[in-house]
């Protein structure tokens, strides 16, 4: 790719990540959330791929780790619901605990960030997972298109 | 005229759905089959979103919302369904693409007539 | 503690295999021993909780509700708005009946695959995918909600296709996987379309709420469209005529353990087909009953005639899978036909459906036994053509004995399980019209002929020179075979007990009104 493309891709890369992170973090307040924000962040990875900016191979491996981490966090916060007295799987046990634990009355609200309990945490987890997952798929397809690797993007349908 | 306009999304969904199915059934190239499947997915998503629309309703977001809009919020079930279905569609497409790549590498073609080896 | 685990068992059955899958994904290719342990722990814990739920339902006779995210013990409608908003599981006698063999087979097929995949390819993604598949099957069998079923259906379709294609096999397995994934995704989209048409009218996804709403008035044109979409999608997924073409390709190309468990995921679709046809659309009972009877008769006939001409041992068994699915459809079709009849025909409907369900359970056990045994033969000899195999009874006596028992069961000979359920089907379908019983018996005879041929050409005869060094499959692979064979014999010896305790209540769930 030409130098212009590479430079602009490098410039847009952090912007994409920041915007994606914004969408993820405000998922419980505005339209968007984990999947959408994660997809925007993965666009940043796609940008690097398309512009032909190489990643060190150990960094590519980290997408795998991100995927597993996100999935693990998501399931962890689902299990947290079991810890509450008379809770259930996916129960919002952190609604009034922890960082996102400010209680809100039902109805219109000013949109404080530190509300919603596990929902925000789960958005975060899904954001990480989708960033990792889509990037893994992109890199696997790139590898496959080159005729290397075993070309098997995993079919874990999250 | 208004009847036509109001039902336009549903008619469009039906048209895209049929197009997608026709593509899956008729095309002889795996990539086009895949594109047909994506069309079918989009059609169903379009239908779901169109179902969720209520004339005069407000979007179901409480952040910085007025009291009177909060009275007219639509139930966001179908939007949630659409999102889930988009995510699943992404996974399906990715997996089918991986299969197509593997097939191309092992068999050297993506033409259905040349590929078809499982018979009987 | 036990009360806590019992309360959350329906959720844990799905969540623990998923957790194990995620841990395995994080492990990647490291720590092989730990990975194997985690895999079995995930499968076992999921199966234990599925069994716990199912046994609780069977013992108490009342369905179990579990609403995700709600306060513990709340029902699906217990919220201020009074609408079913959350993800809700509901396991009743029918779901419990299907969960029992599914949970058992997930463990056995997983145990088998551990050994057989080490012999062939193995790999880091195989185990997470298998766990995902089992979680998806449990979800399909326990959910009480139209959309959730879609999600679990997609999970099983995707992981099933990936597993079927896992051993690339020169592109042949990939071709089968592509076919499966593409057809599945078309089917699931048709399913979603049907679900969308129902939401558009009734603003509900919960099956019980929908059943009430649908049956409070004469069916609309949109209801009919929704029914066609939902039922044809499920007919494709369970592999019945005229949408059965993927079955032989996928089952024959997937590794033995995977085909055995894919069969269970098809059973889960069949379960949903029965449930929707009986509970959601009873107003179309005559039409659907006739269609299911026809689909059943054609599946039986087409499957068995295709099998007679086969030379590939796994492909032959796969064709029989289509044919056996036909028997279950026959039972359910007869039941559905009678539910619309006069008041006195209620017990007939329950009997016919119970026979169909009985066959479904038996089929899951003996057909997976056949797949696993055939997989063991293929793994040992690297051959799959009946003309090349032969005389293996000398070298693989356990596999041969188990395959023989499975073959007797599938052919419907007494005293094994296949006879008990086929007899029930003959009797009940004869009451409807002798025609169906004659078809079923003729297909039974052809099945017998086909399996006599298979058993003879694979296991009997003099020992062949090239198989002199073939060894019996490892214990990890023969153990599941023995368990399944013993179960097949036990069910065949005590059909009455199974019928009264498990099948009667399960069938009554559907024929005695939508619960």
Description:
Chain A is mainly α and 158 residues long. Chain A has helices at 3-25, 34-51, 57-83, 118-146. In chain A, α1 runs antiparallel to α2 (34-51) and α1 packs antiparallel against α4. Chain A starts with a helix and ends in a 12-residue tail after the last helix. In chain B, α1 (2-26) packs antiparallel against α2 and α2 (30-52) runs antiparallel to α4 (77-107). The longest helix of chain B has 31 residues, at 77-107. The termini of chain B are far apart. Chain B has helices spanning 2-26, 30-52, 67-71, 77-107, 112-115. In chain B, 73% of the residues lie in helices and 0% in strands. Chain B is elongated, with a radius of gyration of 20 Å. Chain B is built from five helices and no strands. By secondary structure, chain B is mainly alpha-helical. With 515 residues, chain C is an all-alpha fold. Chain C has one domain. Chain C contains 18 helices and two strands. Chain C has helices spanning 2-27, 32-60, 93-119, 126-142, 146-164, 172-202, 207-214, 221-238, 246-253, 256-280, 285-308, 313-339, 346-381, 397-411, 417-432, 434-459, 475-493, 495-511, and strands at 64-67, 88-91. In chain C, strands 1-2 form a two-stranded antiparallel sheet. The model of chain C has no long low-confidence stretch (mean pLDDT 88). Chains in contact: A-B, A-C, B-C. At the A-C interface, α3 of A face α1, α4 and α5 of C.
């Amino acid at each position: 790719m030409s130098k212009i493309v590479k430079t602009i891709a490098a410039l847009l890369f952090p912007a994409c990540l920041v915007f994606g992170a914004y969408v993820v973090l405000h998922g419980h307040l505005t339209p968007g959330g984990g999947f959408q924000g994660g997809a925007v962040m993965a666009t940043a990875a796609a940008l690097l791929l398309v512009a032909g900016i190489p990643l060190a191979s150990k960094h590519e491996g980290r997408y795998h780790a991100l995927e597993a981490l996100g999935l693990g966090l998501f399931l962890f916060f689902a299990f947290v619901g079991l810890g509450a007295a008379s809770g259930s799987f996916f129960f919002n046990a952190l609604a009034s605990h922890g960082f996102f634990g400010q209680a809100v009355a039902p109805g219109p609200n000013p949109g404080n960030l530190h509300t919603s309990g596990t929902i925000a945490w789960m958005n975060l987890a899904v954001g990480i997972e989708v960033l990792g997952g889509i990037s893994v798929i992109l890199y696997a397809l790139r590898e496959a298109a080159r005729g290397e690797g075993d070309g098997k993007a995993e079919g874990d349908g999250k | 005229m208004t009847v036509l306009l109001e039902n336009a999304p549903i008619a469009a969904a039906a048209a895209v759905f049929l197009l997608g199915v026709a593509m899956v059934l008729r095309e002889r190239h795996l990539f086009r089959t895949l594109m047909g499947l994506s069309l079918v997915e989009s059609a169903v998503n379009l239908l779901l979103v169109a179902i969720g629309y209520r004339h005069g309703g407000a979007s179901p977001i409480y952040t910085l919302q007025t009291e009177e809009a909060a009275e007219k919020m639509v139930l966001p079930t179908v939007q949630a369904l659409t999102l889930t279905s988009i995510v699943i569609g992404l996974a399906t497409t990715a997996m089918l693409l991986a299969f197509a790549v593997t097939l191309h590498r092992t068999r050297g073609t993506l033409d259905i007539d040349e590929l078809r080896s499982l018979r009987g | 503690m036990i009360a806590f685990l019992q309360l959350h068992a329906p959720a844990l059955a799905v969540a623990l295999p998923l957790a194990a899958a995620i841990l395995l994904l994080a492990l990647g290719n490291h720590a092989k021993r730990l990975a194997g342990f985690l895999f079995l722990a995930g499968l076992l814990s999921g199966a234990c909780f599925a069994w716990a739920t199912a046994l609780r339902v069977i013992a108490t006779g009342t369905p179990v509700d579990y609403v995700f995210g709600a306060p513990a013990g709340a029902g699906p409608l217990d919220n201020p708005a009074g609408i079913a908003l959350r993800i809700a599981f509901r396991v009743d006698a029918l779901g419990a009946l299907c969960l029992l063999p599914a949970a058992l087979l997930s463990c056995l097929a997983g145990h088998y695959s551990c050994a057989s995949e080490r012999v062939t390819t193995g790999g880091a993604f195989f185990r997470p995918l298998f766990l995902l598949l089992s979680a998806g099957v449990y979800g399909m069998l326990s959910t009480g909600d139209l959309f959730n079923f879609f999600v679990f259906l997609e999970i099983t379709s995707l992981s099933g296709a990936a597993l079927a294609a896992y051993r690339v096999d020169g592109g042949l397995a990939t071709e089968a996987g592509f076919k499966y994934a593409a057809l599945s995704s078309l089917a699931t989209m048709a399913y979603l379309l049907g679900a969308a048409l129902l939401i558009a009218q009734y603003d509900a996804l919960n099956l019980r709420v929908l059943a009430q709403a649908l049956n409070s008035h004469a069916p609309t044109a949109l209801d009919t469209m929704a029914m066609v979409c939902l039922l044809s999608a499920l007919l494709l997924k369970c592999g019945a005529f005229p949408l059965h073409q993927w079955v032989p390709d996928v089952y024959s190309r997937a590794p033995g353990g995977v085909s055995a468990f894919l069969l269970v995921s098809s059973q889960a679709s069949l379960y949903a087909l029965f449930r929707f046809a009986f509970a959601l659309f009873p107003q179309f009972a005559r039409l659907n009953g006739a269609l299911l009877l026809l689909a059943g008769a054609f599946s039986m006939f087409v499957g068995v005639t295709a099998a007679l001409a086969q030379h590939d041992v796994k492909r032959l068994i796969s064709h029989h899978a289509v044919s056996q699915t036909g028997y279950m459809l026959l039972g359910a079709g007869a039941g559905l036909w009678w539910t619309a009849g006069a008041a006195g025909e209620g017990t007939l409907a329950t009997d016919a459906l119970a026979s169909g369900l009985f066959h479904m359970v038996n089929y899951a056990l003996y057909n997976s036994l056949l797949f696993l045994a055939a997989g063991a033969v293929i793994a040992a000899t690297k051959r799959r053509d009946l003309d090349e195999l032969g005389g293996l009874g000398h070298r693989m006596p356990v596999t041969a004995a188990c395959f023989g028992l499975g073959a007797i069961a599938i052919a419907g000979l007494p005293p094994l399980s296949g006879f008990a359920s086929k007899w029930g089907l003959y009797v009940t379908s004869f009451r409807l019209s002798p025609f169906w019983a004659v078809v079923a018996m003729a297909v039974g005879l052809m099945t017998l002929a086909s399996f006599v041929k298979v058993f003879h050409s694979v296991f009997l005869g003099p020992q062949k020179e090239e198989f002199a060094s073939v060894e019996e499959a490892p214990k990890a692979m023969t153990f599941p075979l023995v368990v399944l064979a013993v179960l097949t014999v036990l069910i065949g010896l005590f059909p009455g007990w199974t019928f009264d305790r498990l099948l009667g209540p399960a069938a009554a769930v559907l024929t005695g009104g939508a619960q």
